[in-house]
Amino acid sequence: MQKIGTPEGTKTVLSKYPFILKKKYGQNFLIDAHVLSKIIEAANITKDDCVLEIGPGIGSVTEQLLEHAGEVISVEIDKELIPILNDQFCFFDNFTLINEDFLKLNIKKVLENKTNIKVVANLPYYITTPIIMALLESELPFINITVMVQKEVADRIIALPGTKEYGAISASIAYYAKTRLVANVPMHSFIPRPSINSAVIELSLYKTAPVELIDKEIFFKVIKAAFSQRRKTILNSLSNNFDIEKDKLKKILEISKIGINIRGETLGTSEFATLSNLICSTK
Fold first, then answer.
1. Record: fold of 216-282
2. Residue range 142-165, pLDDT digits in tens
3. Which of 1, 109, 137, 236 is most buried (CB neighbours < 10 A)?
């Protein structure tokens, strides 16, 4: 049987069903068998796993997931794709399809009593960060999150402190997970061909937080402040975002051994944790 995730398979599906591509959903369908295998390999899918798939499209990745996973729950926002997906996978008893905007979905209810949960997603640029942060902030016991995103976004997510790409999203995600690049995905790996390159990245979630925090909200506020004005010193960034006297902030930075002239974009998870805990202690 012809695989969907091939040039011929995708063309067959698109010609069979009266479906109009929607640019707003970033509908570019993967036709690269090598990349498909990389996704399955990176996510380390086994028959013991329940996989939450976000953005199945016409089912290129879904088809592979159903072969390897114990259960697949796919969430698709486009109602016109639902009949296509149902038609292709109705014979699989381990497949559940939900037609919903993922960000409006009660994900805790959907995954209630599920174990060994992994996430596989193909995310358009405009919604990448909100979906990843919603997954992480849900505090559900995900083992890993394997996502295909725009290359530029992938570079920012996996960036290390002190690099050009490092920003608030890099620092925020680093609290929840260890990130890595799985594969770069060129434009010709899709139908229709997008105007940008993509990448597959994997987020391996920590079972316990890498740092101890007094107040998680303050921790993320410190991160946001540090990147609110790039190239500003951490002293000025904190001063502009916290109602704390500058002398007190200088003392905090002195105690933390970070220094008043250090820039926020050079700090990592442990430094942000130290700062946020000291700020909490001075209130």
1. Helicase, Ruva Protein; domain 3 (1.10.8)
2. 999 999 999 999 999 999 999 999
3. 236
- CATH number of this structure's domain 7-205, picked from the four choices 3.20.20.140, 3.40.50.300, 3.90.370.10, 3.40.50.150: 3.40.50.150
- Render pLDDT for 230-278 as a digit per residue (tens, 0 to 9): 778 999 999 999 999 999 999 999 999 998 999 999 999 999 999 999 9
Q: What are the residues facing 62 on neighbouring strands?
A: none
272 and 210 in contact (C-beta within 8 Å)? no
